[in-house]
């Protein structure tokens, strides 16, 4: 299917306190995204640290996100995992809780075959009626969704798009060629947002937009309007921020950035650690260069 997601989506961080999820801080972050023009919120994706959250915490956050997210902003829950049965169950739960769509990362650690990937997405798509986004991020999962497999799953009725974060533009272009008109292509890598949009991507699912939602939305709008001069100017401004946001494993830097903006994002959960001082300085400088107001 095509046409589900367009524009800027934010891969939301999950603010934590020592006692659990900080729902007040999450609400403030959602307000910030809406004010910045973000088109979609992706909750419990990799950036949201679901791997270190209990099932009760996930359900609490999903219910709360649905309660506070306006109907004109798409709400997408991350439901993928390395157990197909569990991914199917979580996708059903997400649908029952009012998700507009689900994001299913490729199974990690198992290192399944391409046939296994097809069967995984086939099972998820058969279990729900909401749009399903396949997420390819081989640097984290150890498995790469190849273009021919993307073409195969694009035939599934409610497979809405491929979130591409392989970092390989040749592969991205081949995936775009094979899936064009069957499902949409989304950028899942902030450093490649501009070229993927120009290759026909309909949306970005961005980490950087946690901090700079208005600029990321502006980039998407500029490409949509074929204003490549403006798109390049925005991209040039955002690239140092993207580099800073990935100076350590995501979401360590972006959570630090949210704290610099005054949100009570807390720290990443172990085994992730607090950002290193030199990377914090790099992040702060990049944020200031983007016109973001950081705490003194």
- Total strands: 10
CATH superfamily: Aldolase class I
- Assembly type: single chain
Structural class: alpha/beta
β-strand amount: 5-15%
**What is the helix content?**
40-55%
If you compute it from the alpha carbons, what radius of gyration comes out, rounded to the nearest whole angstrom? 18 Å
- How many domains, as an integer? 1
- Bulk shape: globular
Sheet with the most strands, sense and barrel status: 8 strands, parallel, barrel
Could you name the key traits of this structure?
45% helix; 296 residues; eight-stranded parallel barrel; two-stranded antiparallel ribbon; alpha/beta; TIM Barrel
Q: What does this entry look like structurally?
A:
This protein is α/β, with parallel strands linked by helices. It has one domain: TIM Barrel. The protein has twelve helices and ten strands. The chain has an eight-stranded parallel beta barrel, surrounded by five helices. Strand 6, helix 4 and strand 7 form a beta-alpha-beta unit. Helix 3 packs parallel to helix 4. The longest helix has 18 residues. The mean pLDDT is about 95.
Outline:
The chain has helices at residues 23-35, 55-68, 84-96, 114-127, 138-141, 147-153, 169-179, 193-198, 213-224, 228-245, 252-260, 277-289; strands at residues 7-11, 16-17, 20-21, 40-43, 74-78, 101-105, 132-136, 159-164, 184-187, 203-206. By secondary structure, the chain is an alpha/beta fold.
Q: Secondary structure elements and their pairing?
A:
Layout: E1 7-11, E2 16-17, E3 20-21, H1 23-35, E4 40-43, H2 55-68, E5 74-78, H3 84-96, E6 101-105, H4 114-127, E7 132-136, H5 138-141, H6 147-153, E8 159-164, H7 169-179, E9 184-187, H8 193-198, E10 203-206, H9 213-224, H10 228-245, H11 252-260, H12 277-289
Parallel strand pairs: 1-4, 1-10, 4-5, 5-6, 6-7, 7-8, 8-9, 9-10
Antiparallel strand pairs: 2-3
Helix pairs in contact: 1-2, 3-4, 4-6, 6-7, 9-10, 10-12, 11-12
